[in-house]
Amino acid sequence: MKIKTLFLLLSLSLVLVASLYSQTPQKGESKWKTFEDKKLGVSFSYPGDFEVAVGEGATSADFSITLTPKKIPDKYRDSYEFRISKGATPGGRCDSWEKATDDKPPKNWPKTKMIGGFTLNLYATAEGNMGGHTDITFGYSGTSKKGCLGLETSLRTGSAQMYAEKTYALDRKIIEASYLRLLNSYKIIGEK
Q1: What does each C-alpha distance from 117 to 58, 66, 89, 148 come to in angstroms?
Q2: Which residues lie below 8 Å from residue 130, measured CB to CB, with a gap of 6+?
């Protein structure tokens, strides 16, 4: 009898925990918004808990957009942002992006993507600095007759030994999934 009662209580506990878990937002989830700027000729989706900053003097031929989380809880030692850049002429930053291969890009990502006449190539870089952080950048960039286009993620990671209190690394898979969702939603608008 005691075993049956114990089994029943354990089963009910598991059902209750599963029910509560399914009703709470999963780690990394947020509502997404759409950014559309007809002057720049772009549209894309982004996490709703991010800030969007468009560089000064932006035009449809030459712009930079930075997307950053509004708040990363203090328990995390890392930071990241998404960047979108378009230059009026091929070369410059696009050339350096396309030559960047000193880190492994995320697994199973396509080597190239086509967006609005641009053939974008996958790249990844990693660079350590004296502060104990590592800056990891991955994304896509490419050129066309229209200039250069790049969409990237910049992730700054820190070593746990750098902090007196216990801190955690951000989940890179969630960052990569958010980046891919943004990338796959990116559209060039207003062109004929």
Answers
A1: 20, 22, 14, 11
A2: none
Q: Give burial (CB, 10 Å; 0-12/13-18/19+) of 126.
A: middle
pLDDT in tens, 25-56: 345 456 999 999 998 999 999 999 999 999 88
CA distance 95 to 114: 17
Cα distances (Å, whole numbers) of residue 76 to 155, 156, 179, 188: 12, 11, 19, 35
Question: Which whole-number Å values give the CA distances from 69 to 47, 52, 178, in the listed order?
Answer: 8, 9, 12
**How many contiguous H segments (helices) and E segments (strands) does the chain have?**
3, 10
Beta pairing, strands 42-47 & 147-158: unpaired
Count of CA atoms in the C-beta half-sphere (13 A) of 11: 6
Report the b/e string of 183-192 with b at 16+ CB within 10 A. beebebeeee
